[in-house]
Each structure stands twice: as C-alpha cells, then as structure tokens.
Amino acid sequence: MIYGLFFGDSITYGEYDGVFGGWVDILKRYALQKFHEGSNEVIVYNLGIGGETTDGLIKRIPHELNARNSAEGNFVFMAYGANDLAIKNGSRMVTPEEFKANIQAAIQQAKQFTDDIYLVSILPFSKNVDGVQVASGKLRTNDEVLVYNKILQDIAEEDSFTYIDFYTAFLEDKEILLSQDGVHPNEKGYGMMAELAIPIIEKYL
Q: How far apart are CA 48 and CA 17, in angstroms?
C-alpha cells in the first residue's frame, strides 16, 4: 500500500468543482478503480486547504507526513503559489524569496519520508482578474505567476524532481478551463489536470 499525499490550496482541495470534486479526487477514484481491477493499492490523500500559502505548509507538513507514512512507500505533491503571490492589504502574502525558502524547507521534511516529490505549477489567471483586486481583497497578476513558477522549476531541476506544468497546458485555453472567478479551474480544467497527472499515478499502481 502506497500513500500519495497532495498538499496545496483550494485548487488541490477542488473548490468550484461540484461535479468531480477536483483533480485530486479524480485521481483518488482512479487509483481505487485500478486497485479493484488488480493493481497495487495507492491511497490518495487530498490535503488541500483553501487560502493556504507555503507559510501554512511548513507548519503542518511534518505532522501530516508523520500521520500518513506507509512502510511500503509514499509520494508527495506540492501545489502552491496562487495565494503566496497575491497582494493583500498592500503587501505580498509571501515574497518570492520566502516562497523559495518555504518550498525548500517543505522538501527537506518530505525527503525524510520519500524521494518521490512532485512540484506543481501555478495556473494562469483569467484576463478578467489579472491585476484586479477581487472580492477576497487579493490582487494577482500573471506576470507574478511566471516569477513564482520559475522558482518551482529551478528547485525541481536542482533536486531532479518532476515539475508538473499545468500552467502551459492551461495557457492557450484558460478562459474556457477556468471557472467564473478566473482563478480556480472548472470541471473541464480539473479533468484535464487529472489526465495529465494520471501517468504519474500509474507508476505506483
């Protein structure tokens, strides 16, 4: 039995998807179906928390990993940045330098349990919310997405981890893959994310 731990914010949690419950829940059902068909058992844990930044991640990751540690193996996904890069009340929630340090600290924690760590890109935002302060008080820009994604890519490259580039997959059709709020995917977007992640899950089945 292998555990897959998916850390992230509301996009990991699957917010705004009333049909499938988001990409991680699709993967959870896929792994269960494969187990019933005779594959290895992979237990997918959706550890997404709406609004969370990497400041929250580094506080809870040691406890989450200790609570869910399979002797047969683990793999960890980290999907952060959409909240970190936001400006709220005039200041950046998590600066690029802090973001890099937090991701690196979280990786060090995860490395105690597994070498299989996946870093997930931040999605592009809809043109309707790019540079616009939304109801939550957060202001995000697509320019900042590129800055934070580059940090994730560089860390993945340095540590030989897999970087999952949902950003590029969404970019051309983002206006039809994002929900009305311009930040979260819709059912179609979440479905595409799951399709791109299934080959990784397959490795453990």
A: 14
